[in-house]
Amino acid sequence: MRIHSPSLHELHAFAAAARHGSFSKAAEQLCVTQGAISRALRKLEEELGQTLFVRQARGAELTTAGREYLAQIEPALQSLEAAALAQRAPLAPTRLRLSVAPTLASQWLIPRLPDWQARHPQIALALVPYQREEDFGAAEVDAWLRPAEAHWPNGIVADYIVGRAIVPICRPQDIAAEPPLREPADLLARPLLFHTHYPDHWRAWLAAVGVEPERLDTLAASADFEQVAMLVQGVLAGLGVAVVQRCLIDDELASGRIVIPFARPVEVGGGYMLCTRRAAQSSRALRQLREWLLEQGAAAD
């Protein structure tokens, strides 16, 4: 039996161009060139003996014949797509092994993982043990989310995700305590809690908000802690005030247990970086993880 229907390539090109009113947008949707769309439609019109589009400077408009043809074929194309999806074997689940700095994992990443699971149900994230001194040679790790370093080993690609914005924190009752906190320099009258690995954060924040340089020469730690979670606990215990990364205190702010006395975030160097092997850049799962983390980080900073 002779087949009279056009090819699926031509029909999909026609339907996409009709939906968008544009050959170029149809080409983008179908991941082909605009020339391929034009050739497919020209061939379709020749086969049907009908003009389906009126070409215009800013797009293409269906003729009466084109509108009638679209109404006839579109249900069939949708049925074919539905049948293909119904019969297609499900994608094999993918497992990405991610090493994450502990505080970032508990305070920032894990609360966002339901969104990741909803978007990418076929890609399971497994959080593997974090190593402060990492040589990136572990074959059992696919990616690392860790503090920035001055230099990365050859073969490692690092993308900034979140964590450069720092803010001061205290308990709500600390704002009115004597002497009250009316301006940033008043924080210098309180015990200052420092992060062991980022001792310059207090100086950086105070200088950025205009505290006189001579007053910064007397900065001294009342106590210091190795993790932001410990700093927060120190503030809650009434040991003093601290400067921390804004992205790591969502829960405490939401509960009202701590407050930001001066809402003037300051960006410092560093932050948390997503590190992947250059050789693994073709991994679709890793690309999706990178895009998702960049989106989440942009919304948090």
Automatic annotation (TrEMBL):
PROSITE patterns associated with the record: HTH_LYSR (PS50931)
Gene3D superfamilies assigned: Periplasmic binding protein-like II (3.40.190.10), Winged helix-like DNA-binding domain superfamily/Winged helix DNA-binding domain (1.10.10.10)
Similarity section: Belongs to the LysR transcriptional regulatory family.
Keywords: DNA-binding, Transcription, Transcription regulation
HTH lysR-type domain segment(s): 6-63
PANTHER family for this protein: HTH-TYPE TRANSCRIPTIONAL REGULATOR (PTHR30537), HTH-TYPE TRANSCRIPTIONAL REGULATOR TRPI (PTHR30537:SF74)
Entry keyword annotation includes Transcription regulation: yes
SUPFAM superfamilies with a match to the protein in the record: Periplasmic binding protein-like II, Winged helix' DNA-binding domain
The protein, known as: LysR substrate-binding domain-containing protein
One protein family per Pfam: HTH_1
